[in-house]
Design brief:
Elements (H helix, E strand, L loop, with lengths): L8 E4 L5 H7 L8 E4 L4 H4 L5 H10 L3 E3 L18 E7 L9 H15 L3 E11 L21 H6 L3 E8 L26 E7 L12 E6 L2 E6 L19 H17 L10 E3 L5 H8 L4 E3 L16 E3 L7 H5 L7 E5 L10 E5 L1
Parallel strand pairs: 1-2, 1-4, 2-3, 4-5, 10-11
Antiparallel strand pairs: 5-7, 6-7, 8-9, 10-12, 13-14
């Protein structure tokens, strides 16, 4: 926290205001400091040097507030409409000897309470005793279940840890971090760390252009809303990822199909597939930049045809056909695209089946 000299600053839980007195000496504008304590005014002024510290802060133009709950800042009218660049909470503790989960809850509620009062580039500073934070910076580092999990508690409020620095109480003049187990007793500051948090950037979830799925039911195409639970799993193309289990299974299945049914797996990404060796129409499409691939069947699997050439759009493109062709597709009809993209508007020919 050595750099906290400018900008509006809120200090929370400063029992006798001794930290705020040390901080105000370093600030460019003492009036930017708001010093608070959890206890009421009468209770707080009974603490060692609290009365003197209060007068000193007010004399420099700083704001002093009593009865400020760091986990419910919105309940204090004195903070209405205020935005802070720095929010400081040194040695938070629920008081008395309490289970670790209670202190985690305190941190979680504190971080959530800060959000309404942080500037866009604001920072939150939380100083904890040695080992409490549970980060690799703690030496020795406690087991995850035996620490306050400060990073995880902050993450629930959308805050991410930016830095961890050693805290030396001696650097802050007459600062007396009291309140250990709800008594007028100082905390053990040896090995203490200050954890700095900033607002994280929310992840943008991937969305897919096709809002519906098309399936064939009883000989007719049916549209279904894309299930919300699996929507993010559609279109990942895992079968194309090298060494992915799905890709390995796909390769095995395609090999079996090729050997058994005489079909061929097209490894490349093709827009259009030709079902005939007559590639005259393929030439027209190629001039428009479309990718074309003939399907070459094994002789023993080939059947006699009427010589007509049929073209089929890739299945993933069929949901866009009504927009491209500007007409409604009817069940029981095959639509054959016969114009290139650079030529005249697409024409369709209908064929019953």
């Amino acid at each position: 926290m050595e750099g906290v000299y400018e900008g509006k600053t809120l200090v929370l839980g400063d029992g006798n205001f001794s930290f705020s007195v040390a901080l105000v000496q370093r600030m460019a504008r003492p009036a930017d400091l708001t010093a608070t304590t959890l206890g009421g005014e009468e209770e707080t002024l009974k603490l060692f040097d609290a009365g003197k510290n209060t007068q000193l802060l007010q004399g420099k133009g700083a704001i002093v507030m009593f009865g400020m709950d760091a986990t419910a800042l919105t309940s204090h009218l004195g903070l209405d409409g205020q935005i802070f660049d720095h929010i400081i909470f040194n040695f938070p503790h629920v008081g008395r000897k309490a289970p670790i989960k209670h202190n985690r809850k305190l941190l979680r509620k504190f971080f959530a309470s800060c959000l309404e009062y942080m500037s866009a580039d604001g920072r939150v500073y939380v100083t904890l005793c040695q080992g409490q934070g549970g980060t690799p910076a703690d030496q020795p580092q406690r087991a995850w279940h035996n620490c306050w999990q400060v990073v995880a508690m902050a993450a629930e409020a959308g805050l991410i840890m930016r830095d961890v620095t050693p805290f030396c109480a001696e650097d802050w003049g007459l600062y007396r971090p009291s309140g250990y187990r709800s008594r007028d007793k100082v905390f053990h500051t040896e090995g203490a760390l200050t954890h700095t948090f900033v607002l994280g950037c929310p992840l943008q979830l991937m969305t897919h252009t096709a809002p519906k799925l098309v399936a064939r039911v009883n000989g007719q195409d049916r549209c279904f809303a894309k299930p919300a639970g699996i929507g993010h799993k559609i279109g990942r193309n895992l079968h194309q990822l090298k060494d992915h289990p799905v890709a390995m299974v796909t390769k095995q299945l395609c090999g079996l199909l090729e050997d058994t049914l005489g079909v061929h797996h097209l490894l490349e990404d093709h827009s259009v597939v030709c079902g005939s060796l007559d590639l005259q129409m393929a030439g027209a499409l190629t001039e428009g930049g479309a990718k074309v691939r003939p399907i070459l069947m094994k002789e023993e699997d080939a059947e006699e045809t009427d010589g007509d050439t049929c073209w089929y759009l890739r299945p993933s493109l069929t949901t866009h056909l009504p927009v491209i062709l500007q007409e409604t597709l009817q069940p029981g009809m095959v639509y054959i695209l016969t114009a290139s993209r650079s030529g005249p508007p697409p024409q369709t020919h209908r064929r019953h089946y």
